[in-house]
């Protein structure tokens, strides 16, 4: 079992930055691929970014590419999402997820809310 706890959400003006954190416990973090997803009001949950267990590869949605950066610190059991040049359309609840490498996303955090004002 893996427990994920997100933090770092809040209210920010358009053009601003936030850094989300997700701390994992309960299983060897360094064996897990980690991801960020988001769900805006009235919309489906969507993929934002992913980082492989080693940190060697990252993937981002087209809508955030060049603005958001995912990273991880295996010594701290933490994955980060640095969000720059935020837009009102980035407003959503952001969720951290974990998966065994190559498997479906199995573990989810409770979410942290990000609100970007225009």
Descriptive keywords:
118 residues, mainly beta, 7-stranded mixed sheet, 4-stranded antiparallel sheet
What is the topological layout?
Blueprint: E1 3-7, E2 10-13, E3 18-25, E4 32-39, E5 46-51, E6 58-60, E7 68-73, E8 78-83, E9 92-100, E10 107-108, E11 112-117
Parallel strand pairs: 2-11
Antiparallel strand pairs: 1-3, 3-8, 4-5, 4-9, 5-6, 7-8, 9-10, 9-11
* Mean pLDDT score: 95
Distance between the termini: 40 Å
Structural Rg: 13 Å
Please give the number of β-strands: 11
The chain-level structural class is: mainly beta
Order of helices and strands: EEEEEEEEEEE
- Morphology: globular
Number of helices: 0
Low-confidence stretches: none
Q: Residue share in helices?
A: under 10%
Beta content comes to over 45%
What's the story with the biggest beta sheet? 7 strands, mixed
Describe this structure in words.
It is a single chain. With 118 residues, the chain is an all-beta fold. The mean pLDDT is 95. The N and C termini lie far apart (40 Å). It is built from no helices and eleven strands. A hairpin with a 4-residue loop joins strand 7 and strand 8.
Short description:
This protein is mostly beta strands and 118 residues long. The chain has strands at residues 3-7, 10-13, 18-25, 32-39, 46-51, 58-60, 68-73, 78-83, 92-100, 107-108, 112-117. The strands form two sheets. Strands 2, 4, 5, 6, 9, 10 and 11 form a seven-stranded mixed β-sheet that branches. A four-stranded antiparallel β-sheet has the order 1-3-8-7, with no helix packed on it.
């Amino acid at each position: 079992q893996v427990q994920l706890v997100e933090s770092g959400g809040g209210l920010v003006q358009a053009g601003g930055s936030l850094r989300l954190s997700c701390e994992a416990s309960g299983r060897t973090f360094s064996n897990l691929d980690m991801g960020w997803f988001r769900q805006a009001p009235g919309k489906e949950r969507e993929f934002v970014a992913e980082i492989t267990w080693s940190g060697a590869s990252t993937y981002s949605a087209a809508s955030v590419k060049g603005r958001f950066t995912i990273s991880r610190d295996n010594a701290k059991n933490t994955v980060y999402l640095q969000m720059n040049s935020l837009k009102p359309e980035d407003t959503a609840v952001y969720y951290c997820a974990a998966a065994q490498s190559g498997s479906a996303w199995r573990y989810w955090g409770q979410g942290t809310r990000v609100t970007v004002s225009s």
